[in-house]
């Protein structure tokens, strides 16, 4: 058997694949970035309020209370209990049949 003179390489390379992005991808990403910048309203950004943790907690408690009130209002509407007189319960079938 003759020894092989050429070196056979695996089809899987040990080097990391190079991910070359195309110019069209860069252009698309930059277009998206400029579009987002145009959508942002600078005047409204300056007016935005940063709440403290205590104020945020208070607001979330108020919101939870409002949700609970709305849920209870929906649940309790038109569910008023009507008290009706009960029938005499039959404890013994024989006495009920004799009567």
Which helices and strands appear, and what pairs or packs with what?
Elements (H helix, E strand, L loop, with lengths): L22 H17 L2 H6 L5 H24 L16 H6 L1
The biggest sheet amounts to: none
Unreliably modeled segments: none
Overall spatial form: flat
Helix/strand-derived class? mainly alpha
Biased composition (Polar residues): 7-24
Region (Disordered): 1-24, 75-99
Structure report:
With 99 residues, the protein is mainly α. Helix content is 54%, strand content 0%. The chain contains four helices and no strands. The N and C termini lie far apart (113 Å). The model has no long low-confidence stretch (mean pLDDT 78). Residues 1-24, 75-99 are annotated as: Disordered. Residues 7-24 have a biased composition (Polar residues).
Overview in brief:
The protein has 99 residues and is an all-alpha fold. It has four helices and no strands.
């Amino acid at each position: 058997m003759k020894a092989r003179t050429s070196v056979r390489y695996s089809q899987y390379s040990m080097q990391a694949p190079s991910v070359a992005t195309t110019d069209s991808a860069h252009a698309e990403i930059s277009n998206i970035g400029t579009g987002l910048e145009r959508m942002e309203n600078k005047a409204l950004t300056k007016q935005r309020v940063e709440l403290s943790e205590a104020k945020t907690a208070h607001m979330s408690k108020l919101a939870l209370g409002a949700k609970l009130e709305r849920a209870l209002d929906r649940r309790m509407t038109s569910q008023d209990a009507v008290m009706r007189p009960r029938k005499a319960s039959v404890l013994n079938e024989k006495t009920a049949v004799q009567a």
